[in-house]
C-alpha cells in the first residue's frame, strides 16, 4: 500500500496493528508505530489502544504502559487492553491495581475486562487470591455477566480450579445456563489439574454427547487425566481421536500422549510416537527422556540424550538436565550423574538449581554415601527442602544409619509435626537395629501426639471399570471372595516355603 503511494488512513493503520498483534510481529509493529508518529496520529484513541494491545502481545509491557500513560483520553477498550496485557505478562497485581483505577473513571468494565482481571487472581500471593476471586465473582453476578458471558464463566472456573477450590468451580459450571466448548474445556482442565481424573473423563464423554467440538486443549487435559488414573485403554481411545482430528503435530498434545503412555507403563508406545513426530523441540525431547527415566529405563534415557546431542545439535536446558539426572537416579548411575552435573556449568553454562542438587543428593544417599549426601545438603546455595531430607531419611533406613536417621527424622518432624512418615521410618530404623526400647518410645510419641499414618490406596481396571482397595478394606462387593482367595494364596506360599526348606535339608 505504501509502495503504491496510497495514503495511509487511521483505519488501515489500526487493521495493520491488529494483524501484527495476532502474528506477534513486533518488528513490523514498530515500523507502523513510526508511521503513526510521522503522519501525526499519535493522539488517536483507537490507534493508541491498538499499540497497547500490540506491545502487550509481543511481551513489551513496559512500552505498552508508556503508551497508555501518555494517552490523553481512555476508553473501555484501552483500559481492557492494558489490564489484559499486564495479566498476560505475569503482572497480576498491577493488572488488579489498574482495574481499581478504572473503577474511579467514567469508563465501565465489560465482560472481557472482568474475564481478564479474574484470570489475574491466581498469580497473587497469600490469601489475597481467594478473597479477590470471591469479590470479583460477586461483581459479575451483580452485573449479570455470569449468566450469559462464557468468557467470564470460563475465567471464573479456571481461577477457582487453579486455587484448588474445585467444588466451587464445578458448582459454577453446572449452574451455567448455556455451556459451550470453552466452558467445558475450563471445567475438564480444572478436574484434570486437581487430579479428579474420573470426573474429567465423565465430563469429556458428556461434551462429546452434546456434539461440542473438542480442541487441542481438551485433548491435552483428557490425556493428563488418563495418565493420572493409569487407564491405558481410555488413553488409546483418546489417541485415536487425536489422530482423527489431525492433532499429532501439536507439541502439547504429543507431550501429553508421551506422559500418558509412560505413566501407564507403555513407554515403548511413547517412544514410537516420539520417533513419528516430524518436528521435535526441547519440550518434546525432555518429555521422552523423563518418560524413560520414570519407567526405570535410565540407560535408554541417557542413550536418547546423547543421540540428541550428537545427531540433532540439541541444546539442553535446566529442565532437560533434571530429566537426565532423574534417569541416572533411577538407574543408580552415580558416576554418570556427577559427570552430567559438572557438565551443566562447564559446557552449557547452566547454574545447577535446587532440583539438580536434590537428584544428586538422593543418588548419593541411595548408593550408601549418606554422610556425603548430608555434606552436600549443607553446602548447596539453597535451603534444603522437605523432599531432600525425606530422601536422606529413606537412605538411612536402607543402610541402618541410626544416629543420622534420628537427626534427620526429628528435623522432618519439626518441619511438619502432623506427618507420620518420619515417625514410621525412624521406627523401622530402630527395629532393624534391634533398638526395641527406642522403638517403643517413638510409637508412644505417635500416640501422645495423635499422629496416624494414612492408609494407602490401590486400584485395578477390569472390563473398563476401576476397582479401588485399601488396607483392611471390606467395602468392595466381592470382599469375601477376595479375602478367601488371599488366604488360599497365603497358604499356598507357606506350603511352597516349607517344601523348599525341606528340600534344602534333604540335599544337605
TrEMBL record:
Record key words, sorted: Repeat
Any Pfam family the entry gives: PPR
GO biological process entries: RNA modification
Tree of life domain: Eukaryota
Start-end of each PPR repeat: 75-109, 180-214, 281-316
GO function terms (MF aspect): mRNA binding
Protein name: Pentatricopeptide repeat-containing protein At2g13600-like
Origin species: Cucurbita maxima
